[in-house]
Amino acid sequence: MLIKTGTRRALPQDVRNLFAALAIASVIVVPSLAAAQDRVTLDEVIPALSGTELGAMTLGAAPPPGSSRVVRRSEVLNALRREGRPTEGFVIPRSTRIHRGARVLNQSQLARLLTPSVAAAFAPCTVSELQLPDTATLPTGGIDVRTDANRPSRSGNASAIAVVSSGNRETRIPIRASVTCPAPAIEAGDRVEVVVAIGNVRASARGEARQPGRVGDTINVRIASGNRRAVSALVLNASTVEVIQ
Fold first, then answer.
1. What is the pLDDT of residues 198-231, one digit of tens each?
2. 45 and 87 within one domain
3. Cβ neighbours of residue 47 under 8 Å, at least 6 residues apart?
4. Is residue 5 part of a domain?
5. Residue 173's beta-bridge partner residues?
6. Among 6, 52, 85, 186, which one has the highest count of C-beta atoms within 10 angstroms of its own C-beta?
7. Which residues, in sequence order, are bridge partners of residue 164?
8. Phi, psi angle pair for 76, to nearest 5°
């Protein structure tokens, strides 16, 4: 549309309405879409792009569960330029507040969620009691749970970290557990036969266990002959270990 200099013409009503809408869209805060992802995508700022390849473009990291962050127009424009995309033709809000949902689990709910993973991490020891935080804030949506722990050699108290994952976001939950463990097959200081297998060739030597271990555990063993070097070996039974190559 051309408007001559010095000429005052009333714009058509539909054009004035369009300009008014664009002006409003440039300053309002658009509510974000509820999502359980760990990144903010363009379609959360421009919902009209939902379901398109462009709409799935990543703008940046999402806020932690239960919180929010603001995505500004400049961040969107920078992301478009970074991906070699055109920046014209979009109505981009000046700022958009992005929310991420969360669920707060109490101690009983945490115990139900974490117990299977903790029990597997401490096996063959059995867990009789868990000490957990009063609450934990976790992402909404699908989650995976794993437990990082060193298997204790004896009954007593043990520590672990439960890692609850959703996408690339992890929540780490410290755990104390009371465990009951079967007696080690080999005690520290026991004399053992140390077997070395290379292909079809097997050799053995006498050695001394430097730590206790159950069948299937890996322990340190010192070879009795030669330079008495220490090796890592798999416990086969109460008197034999096999060097791990």
1. 888 888 899 999 999 988 889 999 998 777 788 9
2. yes
3. 30, 33
4. no
5. 162
6. 186
7. 145, 171
8. -65, -45
